[in-house]
Amino acid sequence: MGVLGYTILTLCVLGAVLAAVLYFVAQKFKVEEDPRIDEVEKMLPGANCGGCGFAGCRGMAEALVKNDDISALYCPVGGGDVMKAVADYLGKAAPEREPQVAVVRCAGSCANRPRTNQFDGAPSCAVVAATYGGETGCTFGCLGKGDCTAVCEFGAITMNSETGLPEVDDEKCTACGACVKACPKGVIELRKKFPKSRKVYVSCVNKDKGGVARKSCKAACIGCGKCAKVCPFGAITVENNLAFIDSTKCRLCRKCVVECPTGAIVEVGFPARKPAEEGEKPAAKPATKPAAPATEKAAAPAVEKPAAEPKNE
Amino acid sequence: MLKTFPIGGIHPADNKKWSAGAAIQRFALPESVSIPLSQHIGAPAVACVAKGDKVLAGQVIATAGGFVSSNIHSSVSGTVTAVDTIVGANGLRVPAVTIKVEGDEWVEGVDLSDTLISECNLEPKAIVEKIAAAGIVGMGGATFPTQVKLSVPPGKSAEYLIINGVECEPYLTADYRLMLEKGEELLVGVRILARALGVKKSFVGVENNKPDAIARLQKLVGSATDVEIVPLKVQYPQGGEKQLIAAVTGRQVPSGALPIDTGCVVQNVGTAYAVYEAVQKNKPLVERIVTVTGSAMQKPANLLVRIGTPISSLLAHCGGLPEGGVKVIGGGPMMGRAMSNIEAPVMKGSSGVLVLRSEETLRGEEGDCIRCAKCVDACPMGLEPYLLANVSKQKMYDMAEQHFIFDCIECGCCTYTCPSNLPLLDYLRLGKAEVMKIMRARKA
To answer: pTM of the predicted model, to two decimals?
Structure first.
């Protein structure tokens, strides 16, 4: 046997001995893991977006398997179907939540909210918010640098270069909440998703007094409270000169939209209003104050129609 | 060889030529003033006047809201028209007292004459009380309440008083003119501060791009040994507290420590002058020198302005804003902040207003970090700006904290020196603000 033979022999023996050592070590220090975790992880969407509150889908899967009560856990991306499938597999009660969608509550487009200065620093909303009040007179609204679009894993939020505001694609939005966290001004909100992507919301977050808010933006909420008075469901609250529509109470009757003097309350996804309906608007206005009960009655039938609609679909 | 600080630093063009020759000019009383309640670091002052009240110049209109806080005085006589919020220089609303000016009557006991009073036999405690009552804060721009700096904590002692006449910020000449024109009063102020602290030796640090100011002060000091004028080699940011201590004494303030830990107390020349006026003339801090400058200004000037005067009126006085795009900066070009509202008032810390034409302010196109480490070399605090900016951008605030983001003095050397035009300081400021929030939440 030459040098070559000894070398091969030595390496073979060495390999065999080390393999044996590795085998025993692997047996001795084996980590017991519930195989269901892997299965549940496969069922989850695998986006690792963090929308559930865990760092990734693996963490969520572990929590789903280990916790007996999973009612507090929810994957917004997978939605009800995925949660039901997971719950069935694990034999637990499925957590139920209404589907949500991200809504940008600012209508401060270039036309509504003129730019008063130009920011030439780092193009990031977070930097603008840490530095000063922003490029417009409104210090509450969208800063327009697109931090929300940068964090969206699903390409659901894009900047509209014409308005300078982000727009959400309801089809793609999974309500993971990444944009809500990224927005330093708290402009984006997760709201209940209605059929046909219909929404009624206050598209403003300005807490300045009415006059001040109006001066900086034509579409600002001035906190007049008319919407809260007209809402038959008590879904609207006005706090700090700002109205807020609770999407869990709202039934899309759209009475507030008509009432809002600045157009801060917007409706999305509805068919165009009939001309007659629009014609009613100015006529109805002067009558609201003296004949408040009358309008309430008149409102009742009008309300039921849109409220019933979702059930049918 | 002239002294300077040992780490980092840059040499921007000083551009003081525009306003260096303009003698201090008293600015006319405005029609109304808006005096913000938070013109200092620390708790905001609490307003003690109401709408409709008649006030005199020098009257307290807001009292200190805590230990680290400061009194605020009316800078004019007239009627309070509002105790509400106004839009500040950064566009955000701040609480303020607005006063309509009627005549110019002062509270009793204020000596408005120019006579020099050099004798001061007050006890140190009485001096500090007078300074606190006069609402004096650091006039260099940091606006830290002066009485707090003069109250040496038990167990520590002050050895040196260092007076900051560096004015390393390009363009600004307010301190320079003060040293030239009010040298005698300034030195009295320095000796009062030294007396309050009980120190035997004071240094006045002045960069040698102001030889006439150095000569003037040296002549005034004469053969006295308690005050020494220290000419310093020009290097930005020598006016930083820690940099100045290192330049003058060779001592280094450790991370997280205060200047008093090295036995030093640093005060600005403007502060020393305000102390003179408060202690010797009973005049509270109601006016300050503001440099209005820039190549675009027709008549650059150094103005003695009442606190609360709208900045737009200073600009109008100096020839108005030039045509076309301009950038108005509150302070100097390095540490100052662009203003989004020029109706904002002059405050205790407003050392200057700089107007730049848009072509002077263009930022180059942002590239990628090429790891040249120029920012590391330039950082006077020995930090790694590229790293801090990057982790702040990635929202890794815990790492920013571990890498001493809080030692950053926001001097802007990193952004100035970056060959890739990265807005490093923007991200550092973001990181500092976020880390501050996290630290506050941890405390609570």
So the answer is: 0.85
